[in-house]
């Protein structure tokens, strides 16, 4: 019976360490910045790990009053790309904590 308690304590300590490591990884992700470009670098979008857009840079060369739709498409493409990068990095970093846990809904 004593061996089971020792294993349980060991498992609890491992879970507590994993939880601390997860919180640290989440905090690090929130502090990271991500960039994506479209149109060969004509539009650049910067976001943080909280999926907040921090900056949008648009080259003067792509601003054409007669073709606003192209500029809008470039902004959408760069924004979607930066959000994809955030998602991929989050899944990569947090996935190691959730492997084999069968969490519902594709969490992390």
Provide a descriptive summary of the structure in words:
The structure is a single chain. 56% of the residues lie in helices and 17% in strands. It contains two helices and three strands, in the order H-E-E-E-H. Strands 1-2-3 form a three-stranded antiparallel sheet. A hairpin with a 4-residue loop joins strand 2 (43-48) and strand 3. Helix 1 runs antiparallel to helix 2. The longest helix is centred in the C-terminal third of the chain and has 31 residues, at 68-98. The model has no long low-confidence stretch (mean pLDDT 88).
Task: Provide the descriptors you would attach to this structure in a database record.
108 residues; alpha+beta; three-stranded antiparallel β-sheet; 3 strands; 17% strand; rod-shaped
Helix content: 55-70%
Strand order of the largest sheet: 1-2-3
Q: Give Rg in angstroms.
A: 21 Å
Q: Tell me the distance between the termini.
A: 37 Å
Average pLDDT number: 88
Question: Helix/strand-derived class?
Answer: alpha+beta
Can I get a quick summary?
The protein has 108 residues and is α+β, with helices and mostly antiparallel strands. 56% of the residues lie in helices and 17% in strands.
Give the SSE map.
Blueprint: H1 2-31, E1 33-38, E2 43-48, E3 53-58, H2 68-98
Helix pairs in contact: 1-2
């Amino acid at each position: 019976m004593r061996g089971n308690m020792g294993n349980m304590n060991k498992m609890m300590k491992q879970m507590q360490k994993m939880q601390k490591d997860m919180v640290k990884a989440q905090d690090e992700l929130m502090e990271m910045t991500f960039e994506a470009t479209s149109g060969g670098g004509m539009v650049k979008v910067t976001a943080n790990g909280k999926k907040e857009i921090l900056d949008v840079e648009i080259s003067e060369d792509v601003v054409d009053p007669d073709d606003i739709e192209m500029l809008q498409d470039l902004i959408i493409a760069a924004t979607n790309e930066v959000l994809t990068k955030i998602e991929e990095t989050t899944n990569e970093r947090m996935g190691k904590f959730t492997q084999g846990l069968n969490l519902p809904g594709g969490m992390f």
